[in-house]
Amino acid sequence: MEAFTTHTGVGVPLRRSNVDTDQIIPAVYLKRVTRSGFEDGLFAAWRGDEQFVLNREPFRAGSVLVAGPDFGTGSSREHAVWALMDYGFRVVISSRFADIFRGNSGKQGLVAAQCEQSDVELLWKLLENEPGTEVTVDLTRNTVVAKDFTAPFTIDEYTRWRLLEGLDDIALTLRHADDIATFERNRPGWLPNTEPVPVS
Amino acid sequence: MSRTLAEKVWEAHVVRHGTGAEPDLLYIDLHLLHEVTSPQAFDGLRQAGRPLRRPDLTIATEDHNVPTVDIELPIADPVSRTQVETLRKNCADFGVRLHPMGDAEQGIVHVVGPQLGLTQPGMTVVCGDSHTSTHGAFGALAFGIGTSEVEHVMATQTLPLKPFKTMAITVDGTLRPGVTAKDVILAVIARIGTGGGQGYVLEYRGSAIEALSMEARMTVCNMSIEAGARAGMIAPDQTTFDYLRGRPHAPSGADWDTAVEYWKSLRTDEGAEFDAEVHLDADDLTPFVTWGTNPGQGLPLSASVPDPEAIVDENERVAAEKALSYMGLTAGTPLRDIHVDTVFLGSCTNGRIEDLRAAADVLRGHRVAEGVRMLVVPGSMRVRAQAEAEGLHEVFLAAGAEWRQAGCSMCLGMNPDQLKPGERSASTSNRNFEGRQGKGGRTHLVSPLVAAATAVRGTLSSPADLV
Q1: What's residue B467's pLDDT?
Q2: Where, by residue number, does [4Fe-4S] cluster bind (chain B) (predicted)?
């Protein structure tokens, strides 16, 4: 994973609450077996509307999404994070994130920055009144800055550390392979076994 | 120290406690796979040259993408076919047992695990699917994960996680006839909201929950995610043990006694404290339906479409206005006057044998209304076979409904079973999001009883309306 310290890009106001992962990317776009190219499915239903924010300049080239509360609810599809990142987003700002979406973001290097709803409202007004305003999200200081607007954001400390260092979760866990092996030796024998098949 | 059920299961699976901001490392007892969220994870293993650590704790089925008609033919959509074929290749390469289309044990991953006896009390169960919360009905800690985490479990059989907060949802009293587990959970979500459970494991308890069958408990736990929660749990009891005994992967002989002894300890201790508590009175509940575009936008069937003007919170009001516009509904319309085009009976929420029996009982001697199509999609091939052994399929077919093969089907409209733009469904599934069942489709979430009665009358109805 690429390390993230700070990012500056055009802010995109998305005045909607409860943006679920079916809105971020509908199920029909989940059939690919590769990990790239999901930008065409991003907000697919809304992008048919020419007034939708991503269909308007200068928001089209945005990379910091500012959304309403409860962003990313619903399905566990990590494709939602891939679609946002493939489109070019590096940060989503919201006052509340769904748990699985937040987790998936942290694994992929998309910063889910949690701000107070009052700050989200101020940012929306700024981005709507002055379209094209750039927003700087600084993970070293946990701040969102746009023109003379500054607000703090929160993010889980461990995720923040991993993002700043660009560390791969699996490699971190495998440092504790001995602990895992010890745990496995002590598991009760009656726990179910799925009866795997010989490798062909 | 007194502990909750969730805390007991968590502690029993900690491989390593985190220090400071570091999460705990949690062992995973069962990893369920399907075709949609696994291909990129298998690829990740290959690229890193890592083995699948525990194929013996991993099982796969084809469900999200598969057609529910003509399953003996190749899948028509080439992209869907590739995804299913990729799962087959991955399972063969890594030695994972797979239940493919046509197999007697194929079906929706959350129906298959429990019916095989793979889901047991006190286990940790994960799957790249948010409705993994279903398995919590057994007193397991079960939750949905993203594809990166799927790869993490494949490589390490663990997940780094911070402990969840705990919330008790106590439902006391007795459900009235015609009121089901689905109505209970829709009422819970309407009460706490789609974000109310964020960061929590919900423990459902109280006399009304204890009185539920295992399948009804699965319906309740299934939709925990719709309240924003990671997981839902119900303490195991005699109902749980009776369901498990004799299932293919359940312990037997002396192991059974040892297991039951342990399972009996999996209860929230007297005096243990939850981080939050919610109470509902079962006697107050009536059939519940959704009117909007998130599962928290629900009301009793006897109510009318709400007026957004009356909603104080600005975000909620705007959300309600957008929902009514999308749903093509006018404030003040009685919910019972809403016409549907389609009725969908199935999904990991309500695609089990008891759901099919309940719907068939309502449909017996009736016809599906003119202009309405009803799809009956069993949750698994085993459910389908059981229904046919009981003659339920004849009831559905005689009523004019379609009797399909097993899969997720119209719950998420990934296969050809979709609503057309503007079409309206009464659906026993779990999500009424915009476009969930097909672009432009409009979804009302209902119980199997309401689904069947609605099919007969053509408008949202309960069985009592048929008399």
Answers
A1: 82
A2: 348, 408, 411
Q: Which residue in this structure is represented by tokens 């009736």?
A: B366
Query: Would you state the pLDDT for residue B314?
Result: 85
Interface test with B, best of A73, A120, A124, A184 (most B CBs within 10 A): A73
Interface ipTM? 0.94
Which domains occur in chain B, in start order?
A: 5-161 (3.30.499.10), 165-237+262-284 (3.40.1060.10), 334-465 (3.30.499.10)
Q: Which residues of chain B have pLDDT under 70?
A: none
Distance from CA of B398 to the nearest CA of A (A): 33
**CA–centroid distance for B172 within its chain:** 23
pLDDT given for residue A200 in this prediction: 66
pLDDT at residue A35 is higher than 80: yes
CB A155 within 8 A of CB A114: yes
pLDDT in tens, B205-246: 999 999 999 999 999 999 999 999 999 999 999 999 999 999
CATH of A6-186, one of 3.20.19.10, 3.30.429.10, 3.40.50.720, 3.40.30.10: 3.20.19.10
| Distance in Å, alpha carbon of A48 to nearest chain B alpha carbon | 11
Tell me if chain B has a CB within 8 Å of the CB of A16: yes
User: What is the structure's pLDDT at B316?
Assistant: 87
Residues on chain B touching A170 (C-beta within 8 angstroms)? 48, 50, 151-152, 155-156
Q: Identify which of B294, B258, B424 has the alpha carbon closest to the alpha carbon of residue A191.
A: B258
Collect all residues of chain A within an 8 Å Cβ-Cβ radius of residue B263. none
- Does A69 touch chain B if contact means CB atoms closer than 8 Å? yes
Contact status, residue B146 vs residue B37, Cβ threshold 8 Å: yes
**Which residue type sits at A99?**
D
| pTM, two decimal places | 0.97
Contacts of A181 (CB under 8 A, 6+ apart): none
Q: Which residue in A1, A191, A200 has the most chain B C-beta atoms within 10 A of its own C-beta, making it the best mutation to test that interface?
A: A191
* Percentage of chain A lying above the pLDDT 90 cut: 97
